[in-house]
């Protein structure tokens, strides 16, 4: 265990039997819980008490209660008693002791067993800052957060050796609380998965539901994969979203992370052809929480190390703000190649940023700070000079700097057509002129075609 984790207290499920027996006393019994001492609300569990052979009765006490909690006869070979709780509830949580009656009298009380009920409060969030993917030798800070104002957190490491620690919460605005805990330095041999629970200090055995698991990943230097989304970087609220990891390295698995958020489920890699690998990450219907910056990593089954990260992919969620900006173009939607074009995005609502996206493009939208002019917030996107590559359908969105990944409704689409010649060449007058010139050229072509044939016919007549 690394130095930063030595402060974690091991969360044992069994309190050991003390074999030292003082003169005239019976040894303490051993007490433990099955399937464990941390039980979800409504689940069944059993408290076990192990004494010496020949015990006549086992008793269970709960701290704070004057009467024994339960009495049970011993089970064969008469050295153990069991106390069942068919449906765990908050009143069942607390510290328990057991003791037993032998032919020579009552034993000492066992050491305490702390019985915890979970699921009484909503689950907290657990994330890693700055990311759940850490370079070898690096450190990371774990962040537990609650919207219910819980003032204590339990952070638990799930894989062996299991351990846990208690963290004091810090108050945040709007009744929220949080706790931070540093972990590291990380090495490729560490495959750590954490969860956190929250509780109030006056009810230390009544916990929230567990957070989603957070696995810390150690990245290496092998070839970075690429990350893309078939839907494009701007998705509508409620739309289905899938991110895809690709690599020309034959990775067996891929991991996806969201900056400032939790690590998302890993996916097995598949190989569409030799030497290539890919994985899909379906994220379901889009909500505001899907907006953010993502990276993916590749890994091999025989190694705990992950690849270098992919380039970041920003996912922007449109339709979060109710306003709909307008989009116009100067000098017009049909321009000649080489001209200067300006797309103007405007909104009557206070917005700090405007974004311009091109339909079908995988590139991130252009961003500009807004300017207030003539009663509107606006931004001018200049394209100088335009080429055929600028052909396409454009939309613009507005946003706030405090929510950079959440956008307004999309503007009406604007199609930009970039022609090879100047649009004035296609006026009616010019078309007529080109038509007349074409008829003249056609007539000359006919005369030139007939002239050789006519001359040849005269010569044939002369010969005859």
UniProtKB/TrEMBL annotation:
Coiled coil: none annotated. It is found in: Cell membrane. It is a single-pass membrane protein. SUPFAM superfamilies: Immunoglobulin. Residues 1-23 form the signal peptide. InterPro entries: Ig-like_dom, Ig-like_dom_sf, Ig-like_fold, Ig-like_Receptors_ImmuneReg, Ig_sub, Ig_sub2. Keywords: Cell membrane, Disulfide bond, Glycoprotein, Immunoglobulin domain, Membrane, Repeat, Signal, Transmembrane, Transmembrane helix. SMART domains: IG, IGc2. Residues 62-87, 262-281 are annotated as: Disordered. PROSITE patterns: IG_LIKE. It holds the Pfam family Ig_2. Residues 325-419 form the Ig-like domain. Residues 62-82 have a biased composition (Basic and acidic residues). The keyword Nucleus does not apply. This is Leukocyte immunoglobulin-like receptor subfamily A member 6 isoform X4. It comes from Balaenoptera acutorostrata (Common minke whale). The lineage of its organism: Eukaryota, Metazoa, Chordata, Craniata, Vertebrata. The gene is LOC130705662.
């Amino acid at each position: 265990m690394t130095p930063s984790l030595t402060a974690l207290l091991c969360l044992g499920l069994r309190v050991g039997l003390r074999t030292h027996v003082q003169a005239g006393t019976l040894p303490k019994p051993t007490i433990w819980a099955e399937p464990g001492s941390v039980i979800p609300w409504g689940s069944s569990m059993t408290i076990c008490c192990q004494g010496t052979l020949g015990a006549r009765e086992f008793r269970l006490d709960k701290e704070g209660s004057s009467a024994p909690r339960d009495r049970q006869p011993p089970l064969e070979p008469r050295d153990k008693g069991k106390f069942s709780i068919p449906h765990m509830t908050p009143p069942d949580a607390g510290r328990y002791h057991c003791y037993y009656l032998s032919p020579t009298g009552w034993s000492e009380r066992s050491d305490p067993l702390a019985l915890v009920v979970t699921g009484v409060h909503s689950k907290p969030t657990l994330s890693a800052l700055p990311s759940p993917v850490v370079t070898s030798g690096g450190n990371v800070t774990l962040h537990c957060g609650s919207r219910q104002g819980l003032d204590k957190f339990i952070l638990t490491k799930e894989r062996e050796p299991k351990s846990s620690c208690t963290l004091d919460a810090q108050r945040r605005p709007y009744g929220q609380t949080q706790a931070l805990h540093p972990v590291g330095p990380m090495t490729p041999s560490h495959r750590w998965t954490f969860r956190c629970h929250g509780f109030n200090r006056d009810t230390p055995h009544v916990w929230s539901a567990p957070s989603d698991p957070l696995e810390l990943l150690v990245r290496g230097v092998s070839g970075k994969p690429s990350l893309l989304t078939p839907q494009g970087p701007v998705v509508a609220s409620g739309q289905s979203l899938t991110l895809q990891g690709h690599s020309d390295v034959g990775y067996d698995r891929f991991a996806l992370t969201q900056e400032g958020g939790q690590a998302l489920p890993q996916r097995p890699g598949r190989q569409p052809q030799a030497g290539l690998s890919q994985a899909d990450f379906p994220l379901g219907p889009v909500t505001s929480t899907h907006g953010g910056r993502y990276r993916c990593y590749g890994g091999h089954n025989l190694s705990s190390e992950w690849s270098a990260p992919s380039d970041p992919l920003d996912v922007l969620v449109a339709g979060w703000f109710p306003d709909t900006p307008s989009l116009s173009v100067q000098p017009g939607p049909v321009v000649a190649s080489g001209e200067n074009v300006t797309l103007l995005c405007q909104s009557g609502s206070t917005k700090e940023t405007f974004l311009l996206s091109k339909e079908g493009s995988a590139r991130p939208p252009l961003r500009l700070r807004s300017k207030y002019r003539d009663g509107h917030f606006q931004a001018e996107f200049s394209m100088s000079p335009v080429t055929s590559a600028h052909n396409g359908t454009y939309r613009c969105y507005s946003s706030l700097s405090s929510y950079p990944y959440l956008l307004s409704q999309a503007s009406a689409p604007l199609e930009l057509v970039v022609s090879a010649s100047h649009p004035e060449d296609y006026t009616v007058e010019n078309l007529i002129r080109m038509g007349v010139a074409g008829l003249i050229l056609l007539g000359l072509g006919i005369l030139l075609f007939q002239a050789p044939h006519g001359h040849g016919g005269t010569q044939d007549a002369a010969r005859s």
